[in-house]
């Protein structure tokens, strides 16, 4: 009986690792999508219809010489060292090919993964997120109540009337000056 994994539409930062029991030539063909009409062999083996292969890695473990699968998870994929440490010897002891499926491969859609041969589930890990620290702000300016800015007082009726009278006098002065110039 194979394992079944649920992927939620909001899943983020989950890394699933599968051992691939294929030869090098078979692994190359396994990664290829021959036509757009049918799902790639990787998608079929995972039991999903749609998979963004940008976020799927299939590679030979001998390409990780000196680092190992555990080191790749920590240094390359951002899994916490504490999460990998209990399984380090088992992860580094695996040989052949491995398939790594990141959460983004499902494109924000919910899915059910039911892996079948040639895949065998190895483990599921999560990316180490930056820890959030809730500290008080260093500035005292961030404390207290927000006070709205003072508003300008509306202009008084006497002031408005005076402005109208002034503009009327200027207009009359210009009109009298124009009449004297035309008559003169």
Would you mind describing this structure in some detail?
This protein is of the alpha+beta class. It folds into two domains: 5-126, no CATH class; 156-184. Helix content is 32%, strand content 17%. It contains six helices and six strands. The strands form two sheets. The protein has a four-stranded antiparallel sheet with strand order 3-4-2-6, with helices on one face. The protein is elongated and about 110 Å long. The model has no long low-confidence stretch (mean pLDDT 85).
Concise account of the structure shown:
The chain crosses the membrane at residues 164-183. With 184 residues, the chain is an alpha+beta fold.
Question: How are the elements arranged and paired?
Answer:
Elements lengths: L4 E3 L6 E7 L3 H8 L9 H6 L9 E5 L7 H9 L4 H4 L3 H5 L4 E6 L8 E3 L5 E8 L30 H27 L1
Antiparallel strand pairs: 1-5, 2-4, 2-6, 3-4
Strand order of the largest sheet: 3-4-2-6
Apparent shape: elongated
In N-to-C order, the SSE pattern is EEHHEHHHEEEH
Radius of gyration: 36 Å
Tally of helical runs: 6
Report how far apart the termini are.
114 Å
As for the number of domains, it is 2
Q: Please provide the count of β strands.
A: 6
Helix content: 25-40%
User: Mean of the pLDDT scores?
Assistant: 85
Keywords: Membrane, Transmembrane, Transmembrane helix
Transmembrane segments: 164-183
Protein name: Aspartate carbamoyltransferase catalytic subunit
């Amino acid at each position: 009986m194979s394992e079944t994994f649920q992927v939620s539409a909001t899943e983020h930062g989950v890394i699933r690792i599968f051992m691939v029991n294929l030869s090098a030539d078979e692994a190359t063909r396994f990664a290829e999508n021959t036509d757009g009409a049918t799902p790639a062999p990787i998608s079929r083996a995972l039991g999903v219809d749609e998979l963004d292969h940008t976020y799927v890695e299939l590679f030979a473990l001998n390409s990780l010489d000196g680092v190992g699968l555990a080191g790749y998870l920590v240094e390359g994929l951002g899994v916490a060292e504490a999460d990998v440490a209990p399984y380090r010897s088992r992860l580094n002891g695996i040989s052949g090919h491995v398939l790594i499926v990141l959460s983004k491969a499902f494109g924000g859609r919910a899915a059910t993964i039911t892996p079948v041969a040639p895949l065998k589930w190895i483990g599921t890990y999560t990316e180490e997120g930056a820890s959030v620290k809730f500290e008080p702000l260093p500035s005292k300016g961030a404390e207290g109540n927000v006070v709205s800015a003072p508003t300008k007082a509306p202009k008084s009726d006497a002031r408005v009337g005076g402005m109208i009278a002034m503009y009327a006098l200027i207009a009359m002065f210009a009109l009298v000056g124009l009449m004297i110039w035309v008559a003169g």
